[in-house]
Design brief:
Blueprint (H helix, E strand, L loop, with lengths): L5 H22 L19 E2 L1 H22 L8 H19 L10 E2 H25 L10 H25 L23 H17 L2 H28 L16
Antiparallel strand pairs: 1-2
């Protein structure tokens, strides 16, 4: 049976933090080349349809924690706080794996980015699942702790913003369309990256609810990974659409 090794959790979390800083350094000035930022003259040779690519990329983040839970003997069902936290993580990735891809209307996805995305989802799925299933220790009343309740509320708020923003983005295109349009409604009224803002809020909420180094490292990685992308989306809209609302911010309402 697998055991908890705190040193392994610390090492994997530290690597995740380092990867976050690497992402920030790579993509703060130049966006990752997919979607609206894909260079037309040098498209990657291998690409998969967006629906298939998103399904394959997100699947490990759901399967790996589920597998770790299945391998634990006896199964860990207590305390309730630990069970709920693991369910939150899997709930997000159930949506991202089995629901979101089948409605997305994005452009074909580069195989190279898909490969690295899958590697990350395996890595992070293992880290979060391993910590929660084999290492985390919460008091029986953790569900009433202010960290859990406030983190859970942030998580649900962020997930709601993320899902709603995805819906608004899908409605911009008719089936078969690949042109980009100005997002309207919801939090897009205030920020260009409403979907990214929602996901960042979601994972910082998760980090507060778990109050753990792995979750905070993942939240920091999310911020460093999709924060710059929201910034580049904002610049793209301003450059492409002369009627783009000048009052909108890139990521955080009224701030950035």
């Amino acid at each position: 049976s697998m055991q908890c090794f705190p040193g392994l959790v610390l090492a994997l979390s530290s690597v995740l933090g380092a990867l976050a800083l690497l992402q920030l350094s790579l993509y703060l000035r130049v966006p990752s080349r997919y979607g609206k930022h894909e260079e037309r003259l040098c498209r990657p040779r291998g690409r998969l349809p967006a629906r298939c690519a998103w399904f394959l990329q997100e699947l490990p983040s759901f399967l790996v924690p589920a597998l770790l839970l299945a391998l634990r003997s006896p199964p860990r069902l207590e305390p309730l706080g630990c069970r709920l936290l693991c369910c939150l993580f899997c709930w997000h990735y159930f949506y991202r794996t089995f629901i979101y891809p089948f409605f997305t209307r994005g452009r074909p996805f580069p195989l190279q980015l898909l490969f690295f995305g899958m590697l990350f989802c395996i890595y992070n799925g293992f880290l979060q699942g391993y910590y929660l299933i084999y290492c985390a220790e919460y008091p029986n009343d953790w569900c009433t702790d202010i960290r859990f309740t406030s983190g859970l509320l942030l998580f649900l708020l962020g997930m709601g913003i993320n899902i709603h923003s995805d819906l608004l983005l899908r409605q911009l295109r008719k089936p078969g369309e690949i042109t980009y349009k100005i997002p309207q409604g919801g939090l897009f009224t205030y920020v260009s990256g409403a979907n990214y803002f929602g996901e960042i809020v979601e994972w910082f909420g998760f980090a507060i609810a778990t109050w753990s180094l792995p979750a905070f490292a993942f939240a920091f990685f999310t911020l460093c990974c999709i924060g710059p992308r929201a910034y580049h989306h904002h610049r793209y809209y301003l450059k492409t659409f002369t009627d783009y609302p000048k009052s909108r911010k890139a990521l955080i309402p009224f701030v950035f």
